[in-house]
Amino acid sequence: MDTQKIKDKFKELFGSEGTLYTSPGRINLIGEHTDYNGGFVLPGAIDKAMYVMIKPNGMDKVRSFALDLDESSEFGIKDDKDQPKEQWASYIFGVVREMQKKGKQVPGFDIVMSGEVPLGAGMSSSAALESAVGFALNDIYNLGFSRPEIATIGQATEHNYIGVKCGIMDQFASCMGKEGSLIRLDCRSLEHEYVPFDPKGYKLVLINTCVPHNLAAGGEYNKRRASCEAVVAEIAKNHPEVELLRDADMKMLEEVKDKVDPVDYMRAEFFIGEVQRLLDTCEALKEGDYETVGQKMYETHEGLSKKYEVSCPELDFLIDQAKKHGVTGARVMGGGFGGCTINLVKEDKIDNFVKEATEAYEKEFNIKPKVYDVVIKDGARKLD
Ligand code: GLA
Description:
globular, alpha+beta, binds alpha-D-galactopyranose, 4-stranded antiparallel β-sheet
């Protein structure tokens, strides 16, 4: 990333330089739509990030500029009514407001942002932005939040200012990522363990369908969460200890089969299977058994496509291409409804797979897909 452009713009707009911070996007190897159910996830921060230059301005407002959109937004931060109309600026606004709700003084500041996490691609560009802003404000104003707290501030921003009832995975990975490791995160307790990820002879390749997803629009993401909560409410009538779907098992789900909506049942069935697949994957990773890891990824895609219904024809097509060209494992990554597939590929198969799959995809949908190699990197940090 050429951060010089951010510095130059900051100087042009505000007359001096500020401090530069970055926070990355994430991949998730397996464990999808499990975070808001209190389950496990296995994400890692990546080498594609958001960057913010920031400096207190001595006013009670924020002056912000999004370099990639060439748009500015100026807004107050004293009242929820000050929320800016631009969604990108609302991420900044939300982080400030959530910090204030926790009793902290957050005076006004100037900010220029830019990023290399593709938007709407399932790589958590929004969490990267929230985490970069949260980390930066925490640092310049010495607010004393821990990294997991900054992650929950980003999550609350999504809930209260964007309208996506997301889980904690994306912000946690962006704040807590560690080079070379995935994070096995228990989303109920936030207990976590770094799992070294160095699949010798394999690489992770992302293919972006370039079908953009916006989890806030259409409300499909929130509906998935509501389905899971409806099942929990029914199970809890007989098992009051069940507070999240994570606490339920297949037997409990079967007991309420006739009482819940069949679609909600199917969503819950996916989730219970996904918890097991993640645990199996962690075992396979310990053994260096990437064939099993890959098989679990394909099974997850099948579930996300048929039972959780967060895939789309373009994503399914790319998964079929992966199978056809000997990819070890592949699935839709992130919230779904578009965005990227994540592919675990043997190094000697990458070139052929990428060539064949992208050509076939373009022929079928008349869209040029984008391909990214990813490397697992550190989470939020100060630069310079
Ligand atoms: C989005 C959300 C996450 C998570 C994933 C699906 O990325 O922000 O909290 O629910 O979808 O696993």
